[in-house]
Structure formats: C-alpha cells, structure tokens
Design brief:
Blueprint lengths: L1 H8 L2 H21 L4 E3 L11 E6 L3 H13 L16 E4 L6 H19 L2
Antiparallel strand pairs: 1-2, 2-3
Helix pairs in contact: 1-2, 2-4, 3-4
Length: 119
C-alpha cells in the first residue's frame, strides 16, 4: 500500500513514466557530449528508460576497474553490465531514482573513465 501511495503521489503511472524519461534524458545528454560512452541499444526506440545499458571505449579489464573504482569511492554500486552482456555499465533510471542523483553521477563517470583509461 505504501508503494501504491507513493506512485499516486508522483502522478501515478504517467508520473512514474515521466520521471523515468527525465532520467534517461540525463544519460542521453551525457552520452551525446562524450565520445567514449555509448548506448548498448543504438536505436533510440529500443532503449530502456529504466535499465539503461551503456558501452565504453575501454577493454574488459578497464571497465571492471572503473566499476570497482566507483564502488571504492562510494559513488555507485552494482553498475557493471550483466555477465552475459557486453562489457559496460547498467544504470537504473526508474522512477525510484532522482534525476539529481543521475546528474551527480555523470561527472564521476567521466572522472573514473579518465582515471582508468588515461591513467
């Protein structure tokens, strides 16, 4: 009942979808402004606005190091791609995530990428 009340408080299903779309827009803007990160689903019509999957211009070890570095810094946890997916990142963009948190994560992604790939 608490979850249903919360969904109602953010505008119901349309509000939850709008919040997820806003979260995806944050990541879309970041990807558009950084040539080293890409959506796994290259067709925008096939992208999820909740489970946002990204690939990086980095090898498997570098991606793992980036994920580990973000965890060690206390910035992001469990954002590595699924084991059977290509190396990359998996961000949750559902309605339970605040847009401001995703905006705060984006500079950390850049920092970690450059730390790992450029040394």
């Amino acid at each position: 009942l608490d979850a249903l009340a919360w969904i109602e408080s953010i505008g119901g299903v349309p509000g939850a979808i709008a919040k997820s779309q806003s979260n995806l827009a944050v990541v879309e803007e970041f990807v558009a402004n950084n040539n080293w990160i890409h959506f796994l689903a290259t067709d925008p019509a096939q992208r999820s606005n909740t489970s946002i999957c990204l690939t990086l211009d980095a090898n498997s070890d570098q991606v793992k190091a980036l994920v580990k570095l973000l965890g060690a810094e206390g910035v992001a946890f469990d954002i590595g791609a699924y084991r059977d997916a290509p190396d990359g990142l998996r961000l949750w963009g559902g309605a339970t995530v605040e847009e401001s948190d995703l905006r705060a994560l984006m500079p950390w992604l850049s920092w970690a990428y450059h730390q790992v790939v450029n040394g």
